[in-house]
Amino acid sequence: MYIAYSLLALSLSSSPVRGELVLQEPAREFYYSTEPGVVVHQFGLAQGDKVAKGQALLTYMDIQGNEEKTVTSKASGYLEFVSDVLMKDHHFSAGEMLFKVKSSLVLGWYSFKKEPEAQQPIVNSKLWICSKGGHWHFNVDAVKADRVLLSSVVGGTDFAMLYELSRQKGLKMYPNKYDCLKNLL
User: Fold this and answer.
1) What is the share, in percent, of the chain residues with pLDDT greater than 90?
2) Residue ranges with strand state E in 15-84
3) What average pLDDT does the segment 94-119 reach?
4) Residues 37 and 13 in one domain
């Protein structure tokens, strides 16, 4: 009952929370060839493309055993690097970097100032950041006395914009999208 009331109160609150956001750089997965091979299929992927965990990135023929193998993404994210040798029938060497996938998951700590008119964030709620460059929602994953652990899935170029916004002192985060966007007017 208390949680439902708190969620309702948070969603009705229009006062922003002010604080400082410290973002963690998204994780990256590096894909190096473990053996020499010949590209069979590259799936038309290019730098900046979104990929899902388990998605096939490359199919190649093992030169040693003539066995066809597939490289799959270990994480969801964006291709930050694609080797320029990955064209059909091209050879690659062992130890060559083939792909780099940047995670789309961003984590951060938001240290806020307790203000009487602002509702304190609660677990499983959302906080919004809005700017002329875009708007993003963050999930509140944990709440400590004066800070919250946030997570968000963002686009490939969004992290750079969010990082710039996070450098603002007294960054406002809103409990709902409407008030966040209204603040831009």
Assistant:
1) 66
2) 17-24, 28-32, 37-41, 50-51, 56-62, 68-72, 77-82
3) 87
4) no
